[in-house]
Amino acid sequence: MSVLFTGRARRLGDDIDTDTIIQSRRKRETLDPAELKRYLMEAWDPAFAATVEAGDILVAGRNFGCGSAMEVAVTVVLGAGIRAVVAKSFARTYFRNAINNGLLPVICDTAGIDDGETIEIAAAEDGLRVRGLASGFTAAAEPLPPAVRGIVEAGGLVAYLKRHGDFQTAAPAANTIADQP
Amino acid sequence: MAAARTIAEKILSRAAGTDAAAGETLICAVDAALGTDASGPMAIDHYAPPPTQKAAGHLAAVRAFSAEHGIHLHEIGEGIGHQLIVETGRARPGALVVGADSHAVTYGALNCFGTGIGSSDLAAAMLTSKVWLRVPETIRVVLDGRLGPGVAAKDAALALIGRLGADGAAYKALEFTGPALDTLSMDARFVLANMSMECGAKAGLFPADAATRDYLDGRADGPFAAVEADPDAAYADEVGLDLQALIPQLAKPHLVDNVVPIDAGLGQPADMVYLGTCTGGRAQDFRDALAVLRRAGGPKPGVRLIVTPASKEVHLALLADGTLADFAAMGAIIQTPGCGSCCGTCGSVVADGMTVVSTANRNFKGRMGNPNAEIWLASPETCAMTAARGRIADPREVLA
């Protein structure tokens, strides 16, 4: 097993929506994560952003990132120096935006992780392992679908396509719908 | 013999050139892609018109990018991207259409696999015409009966979300079926497909029928390869909803699945009533709301009533039949077609402590621009009745 990330757990609740992660009205001025990071989780706790340190790991309950498909809800987390989110489940648009931007989404039962404790995310052959260094919490997380592992490894979809030029699995040309009977 | 497949499995298999079952992750060819000014170029709807100097600068960059790359751009006032995708015939039966905005699920009403993606996905789709997608399991939603007076498709959508929960269909598709389909107009189907996102669904799919073909007539060239589920396709779950027994529903602040029957919210004071969005901003929505307002004596003085047509086509239809003139005479504020106040990027904002009752699809804290305000979600009829009373009220009082 190789350790991917070690960081302080920042516990959040269930159903954290994208407007809670970053308020849509903040997008009136900029989409730059370096500027928006000061508003991270503002609707949850206005003081939260100032307490975030690079390397912190968000730990949430069910349905993290529900709501909008806006990618800024992922890039603002990365902008704050957070590289992984551990949650019991993710909203699908957040999950794919995380993969596409190189933010590691880890799915496992998070109930036993204490707020503020140091946790470790490690890669095992059959998936990921999450361990709480103070609580003794351990959980096996679901492996990522094989088709998207290369995207995470490249650091995101844009970096992946810059490297490979195209998706690495064959697909038919676009607009085949017109050829159907 | 090929295995039995759901609509979602069939459309994504076709798009990937394979025969895939739920659970597989595929690289699919897309038939069309939508971006918005909040995710990438194509439809200017979130900042329409731009409320700040920086937003205006952002739109200038969107226009320049679209011109450089030959992308069709819908300008300020043309409408919400999702409404434009369906009005212009880009969403058609059997197609895979992705949108860099979560409510792309709206296209499912037209038997089209519409799903929300992110900006990076959109960039990849523009570069390669492809997107990675996990084939979703499907929940079968069986609709029975017929909506009663004062009860709308929005109420059915809210009831379903209340039943399933905000993540009850996460990573899954909804497939709508049942005897009630014949009674549901395309506008009603758009509401159900659109709201399927709010229980986490990847798509909200309807079969194609005569209503679908009528809607597409003049918008898209057929014939269309309508996609039906196989009779013995495998479903993750099945839920039934009896429209006959349904009464108006409300989603209380600050989660969409915080759904209660209208009785539980009656009397709640309302400061602003919002009619619009990709959920409740189509012509029939405004006509239904106006009918309630007329019967109830117009909006109560002091209630801010906002009308935001989903598109220019809707705006023109409401101008032509006098609906907008009646709203204006009642003191309503008519906003530019687009996303408007729904997500706080432009349009009317309320003060601290105020309550909005809206036809929108989301009531998250701060969603409409002020985290110290409350948002309740309801049907156009319930919103109109609420505007008339200045507090949440039941439209069946004047319609039943």
- What is the CATH class designation of the largest domain in chain B? Alpha Beta
Biggest beta sheet attributes of chain B: 5 strands, parallel
* CATH homology-level superfamily of the largest domain in chain B: Aconitase, domain 3
Largest sheet of chain A: 7 strands, mixed
Tell me what the CATH architecture of chain A is.
Alpha-Beta Barrel
**Oligomeric state of the chains?**
heterodimer
Q: Decide which structural class fits the backbone of chain B.
A: alpha/beta
Strand content of chain A: 15-25%
Level-2 CATH architecture of the largest domain in chain B: 2-Layer Sandwich
The end-to-end span of chain B amounts to 52 Å
Portion in helices of chain B:
25-40%
- Domain count of chain B: 2
Number of discrete helical segments of chain B: 13
Sum up the overall morphology of chain A in one term.
Answer: globular
Structure class of chain A: alpha/beta
Strand order of the largest sheet of chain B: 14-13-12-15-16
Strand content of chain B: 15-25%
Radius of gyration of chain A: 17 Å
What's the number of domains of chain A? Answer: 1
Low-confidence stretches of chain B: none
CATH level-1 class of chain A: Alpha Beta
